[in-house]
Amino acid sequence: MAAWNLYRHRNSDGSSKDWAVRSNSDGSITTRWGKTADSLPGVSNRYGVKQLDIERQKQAKGYVLVGAVDIDVNGNVTFPGKTLPATQPQIPDPEPMPTPPIEALYWTIECRAKQAVRVDLGIEVRRLIGVIQALSECHATPEQEWNGWQQFIDASLNAEVFELSGQIKSAHGVLPWLFLLALKAKGFKGVEIDIATETARELSVDLKVEQEVLAFFGTDLDSIRETAEVLGLLKPRLNLAAAMSDTDDCWF
Predict the structure, then answer these.
(1) CB 148 within 8 A of CB 195
(2) Element spanning 196, H or E
């Protein structure tokens, strides 16, 4: 048996469900899940997803780390040094940790859509990247190139199911984050995009409530408004002067 990280999500009705993850020597990760019990029957192996990134996404969805456990090939859960099953109430809930500052954004995309949707996703990925390249002159040159651009291009060209994950640091600039938000806002069926802060808070596509993240990139809403409008993340402001001039001929 190998060490797993076990997470628990408590539902409003008092029930709970568990999810566990471990990294494998071949670079893949294995996850297990199920209702809180002595065993977790669900199992899946994934490639191209980092354990840290997927754990942060689970935390953003309300899962709380219980601790390290052992899980055998049948899914039986054992706490190291204990004979108590996973369902025993003696296991204390972890104490809340102080909120750290944002150091990076963590993102994952899981594409299990039908082929037609995957083709549309690829077209939209390339369109958005083209738009962002055209707008990049309006933004400061990033200190570090984001490798996610090439990851998305490669994945979308194949039009196959895929999973990707990674980080966006302040040195990458704000454009990668805006790209992911714009793609998420499209709501492609069968495509799940999650973006979370260092504090495991899942980010909204509403830029107006993400002032902390904008500050993380050293910018603000007014500075990125034009780019956000072109990407469809903000509605264009009404130009009152232009609107009044357009109505001048209507008066007599």
Answers:
(1) no
(2) strand 191-196
